[in-house]
Amino acid sequence: MSTSTIHDIGYRHYDGRRNGRGYVLRSLYVHNLRAAFGLGRPARAKVMPFLLGAIMLLPAAGSVAAFAVTKQADALIPYSSYAVVMQVVIAIFTATQAPVLASRELRFHVVPLYFSRPIDHLDFVLAKIGAMATALLAITAVPVTVLYVGGLVAKAPDSGRQLLDFLTALVGCVLFAAVLAAIGMVVAAFTPRRGFGVAAVIAVYMLSVAFVAIVQTLAEVQGNFTLQGWMSLFAPFDLVDTVQVRLLGAEPASMAVAPGVGGGLAALALCAVLVLGSIAVLYRRFRKAGLS
């Protein structure tokens, strides 16, 4: 006859350090930021983000090289205009990477697994949208920094003014990153399939830009420059450019911007509404997914 033995190994409580909410939030943020650039994933996942990052750097490097040769200040692309000039590349980056952060867990139905642990729903959303905004900040701020440093090395005139313009552009980059991350993450979160998410984000960008451009052109033909300026609030890049121009003193890079300081304050308020609204929408979206 076979015999069996029961081993009483007991139950031991965990007596180690509990890292708390901050550690969880930081871990989620780092995980999502790495995912935005394809780190820790197959090589094909890294191609698009790093390719787009390289494309973002090329005009900055070319502009610095042109200035070093010609010594003409106009050869340097204005810092605050860089994101507007390169908006197509930034929009593509947002469209391709937002679904990676917003819809991958939804597609594979693993959101409830996250919330089976003591993770707050708001922390989950803040980590994702913060990671997407940081990724966008990286691809917009790094080329601007290359422009600034390259200009200093090549002895650009009026270094004090250059520093002020550079800091203004960095504030603009933060706003661009926050607004675009908010829009991209919300759109992508409602399209679980990545291909649909990419198409949806691109469609939102193209439709808003086309609509605003058409109305602004018609308003200019009719001499209604006030309407032309206020329409800038309905396209994401023009919206942030309005804040840069009216509140930070940057040179305009868009067709038109909202008039006066009031236009700048309205644009800034709309940026805040977009970011806070996206957090609220994503909170409800992931909370619902976590309960299903």
Sequence stretches where pLDDT stays below 50 over 5 or more residues? none
Q: What order do the SSEs take from the amino end to the carboxyl end, as H and E?
A: HHHHHHHHHHHH
- Our measurement of the CA-to-CA distance between the termini, rounded to an integer number of angstroms, reads 50 Å
Question: How many domains would you count in the coordinates?
Answer: 1
Oligomer: single chain
Rg over alpha carbons = 23 Å
Number of helices: 12
**Strand proportion:** under 5%
Mean pLDDT over the residues: 90
Largest sheet: none
Structural class designation:
mainly alpha
Number of strands: 0
Helix content: over 70%
Shape: globular
Characterization of this structure:
This is ABC transporter permease. It comes from Actinomadura sediminis. Keywords: Membrane, Transmembrane, Transmembrane helix. The chain crosses the membrane at residues 50-70, 82-103, 124-149, 169-190, 197-219, 261-283. The protein is built from 12 helices and no strands. The longest helix is centred in the middle third of the chain and has 33 residues, at 121-153. The chain starts with 19 loop residues before the first helix and ends with a helix. It has one domain (21-291). Helices cover 74% and strands 0% of the residues. With 292 residues, the protein is mainly α. Helix 1 (20-36) packs across helix 7 (121-153), helix 4 crosses helix 8 (159-189) and helix 11 (236-248) packs across helix 12 (260-291).
